[in-house]
Design goal:
This protein is an alpha+beta fold and 95 residues long. The chain is built from four helices and four strands; from the N terminus they run H-E-E-E-H-E-H-H. The structure holds zinc ion.
């Protein structure tokens, strides 16, 4: 009689292990976020192509680069780019 939370985590891990085994079998996969290649040995996360699955607490259905998956929804990097433009504008004002 496994604890419900344990079962859920185990389902996620089983899905991830199965997808990694598949990746090792075929040798490469495409990251659904950046479109780049994923090869065995890379850090990967389970990614949800359907946000409803994520809300329902289901495990992700595809592998994605860990960096790509965790960068999703992070607007901070884009904000930094704007700051760089602001700096240029400030410099031109000094001239
Ligand atoms: Zn990626």
């Amino acid at each position: 009689m496994p604890h419900p939370a344990y079962t859920k985590r185990s389902g996620h891990q089983q899905r991830r292990a199965a997808l990694i085994a598949q990746l090792e079998r075929v040798g490469a996969a495409l990251c659904p976020i950046c479109g780049g290649i994923i090869v065995p040995g890379m850090f990967v996360d389970l990614h949800h192509t359907n946000p409803a699955d994520k809300r329902a607490g289901l495990p992700g259905n595809v592998l994605a680069h860990r960096r790509c998956n965790r960068g999703l929804g992070d607007g901070k990097k884009a904000g930094r780019k704007t700051t760089r433009k602001d700096k240029k504008a400030r410099q031109s004002r000094e001239w």
